[in-house]
Write a structure and sequence with these properties.
Length: about 425
């Protein structure tokens, strides 16, 4: 495929997170591969300067986002629009604007927001699928989005509006799920299976660190309930001497409890270069999440450094980590099971080194930038081809008329209220 013109659209989170870093890495990778990439970036930080009614409006349908998209494509026609996060300020209205312009659309589904207001299928520290395949009113009742029933209602209204309009069924040419596990969940949410591709995240190439001389385990990530830090803290007294070999990096709501228990073994916020350096000398990574996880990038970062992962046997983690081959899996939410796995790892350093070597091989085969580029180009090509076939004209395209607001149907007729 010759170099493409690609417009990447993303609404950056108020707290910089994994999705933001994935977007940055993918844009860099595409540019290094010779593609012309432009970025349509909005920031949720801006909602602090907006009245609440305007934030609610733009979450459901943003005319400003449509205007920004028209501005981005004025005098420059992209071959494909690749959308990442639309919440809050981009809104799914940009899909209709792209369709009106005849631009093929790809969306990466980084989380489960389309079926769960919290995006994690987690409530009160346990897996919850009450809204899977249903209207998300249970999520409103429980205030699952930001612990607010009012904000949850706005988000639920946005989801139901675009289900009713058929936005995701008619306005997006191809979707990217990060794992096969996630793909099945999205099919359960009603997305068309034939348009759902699996393409994992990646990390830039690095030389394989040696397996000799490694020692101890790392926890790297947010110190929050969904990430399983509570499970690790409860497992700590069960570890005995093995606890001395663990270090924790990260910040979050459970920071005070973590620091109190771990003392000097809690390292706080650590810049990514230092995290990767620590991964290259550790014996295993801990990932005790109690939620499904979308695609924990730390797994691929660990694999690239030849580091096996001890993780919950749950969701995408059970797909990415092969028990006994690239790490160990334990019963999710079970501190004793986690403690047993950690002690075993500390007592069998050679077995963990062998798993680390296999993890590195998996990285080289599946999670490099070159491999990811090939995956992405195949998805783009399908989106472009299918878009041109289903919408001939404008150069053949016949583009459906989008609604001008959530109060009109896609054909322009009035919506019953």
């Amino acid at each position: 495929m010759p170099p493409l013109r690609i417009l990447v659209a993303h609404c950056a989170y108020q707290l910089y997170g994994g999705e933001d870093s994935v977007v940055e890495a993918e844009v860099t990778m595409l540019r290094e591969q010779g593609h012309e990439v432009r970025l349509l970036l909005m920031r949720n930080d801006d909602i602090g300067q907006m009245p609440a009614w305007a934030v609610a409006r733009d979450t459901i349908w943003s005319q400003e986002a449509r205007r920004r998209l028209r501005e981005a494509t004025s005098g420059w026609r992209p071959d494909v629009l690749h959308v990442h996060n639309t919440l809050l300020l981009l809104s799914p209205s940009i899909f209709w604007e792209a369709r009106q312009q005849g631009i093929p659309v790809v969306q990466t589904l980084h989380n489960f927001r389309q079926g769960c207001l919290s995006a994690t299928f987690l409530r009160n520290g346990k897996v919850c699928e009450d809204c899977l395949g249903h209207a998300p009113w249970a999520g409103v009742r429980h205030g699952c989005y930001r612990d607010s029933k009012a904000q949850s209602l706005v988000l639920a209204t946005s989801l139901m509006t675009h289900r009713w309009l058929g936005t995701y069924q008619t306005q997006v040419d191809r979707f990217i799920a990060l794992t096969h596990f996630a793909r099945e969940k999205f099919i359960g949410l009603g997305l068309p299976a034939e348009r759902l591709h699996v393409k994992p995240n990646f990390v830039p190439w690095c030389a394989a660190p040696p397996q000799q001389g490694r020692q101890g385990g790392l926890y790297v990530g947010r110190l929050s309930v969904e990430k399983g830090i509570d499970v690790l803290l409860k497992a700590w007294p069960l570890l005995g001497e093995a606890s001395a070999q663990l270090r924790v990096m990260g910040t979050g709501p459970r920071e005070e409890d973590t620091q109190t228990l771990l003392q000097t073994q809690y390292l706080g916020h650590t810049p990514l270069p230092k995290v990767l350096e620590a991964m290259a000398s550790a014996s295993f990574l801990l990932l005790p999440s109690v939620c499904y996880e979308g695609f924990p990038r730390t797994v691929v970062e660990a694999f690239s450094r030849g580091l096996p992962v001890i993780a919950s046997r749950l969701g995408s983690m059970a797909e990415l980590i092969e028990h006994g081959q690239t790490g160990l899996l334990f019963e999710p939410g079970n501190p004793q099971a986690l403690a047993d796995a950690i002690r075993w790892a500390c007592e069998h350093p050679q077995a963990m080194a062998d798993m680390g070597a296999r993890a590195r091989t998996v990285y080289e085969q599946e999670f490099t930038a070159d491999r990811n580029h090939a995956h992405l180009m195949a998805v783009y090509q399908e989106a472009i081809d299918s878009h041109h076939v289903s919408n001939p004209g404008l150069g053949g395209r016949v583009v459906p008329r989008p609604p001008t607001s959530p109060g009109t149907r896609p054909d322009g007729s009035a919506q019953n209220r």
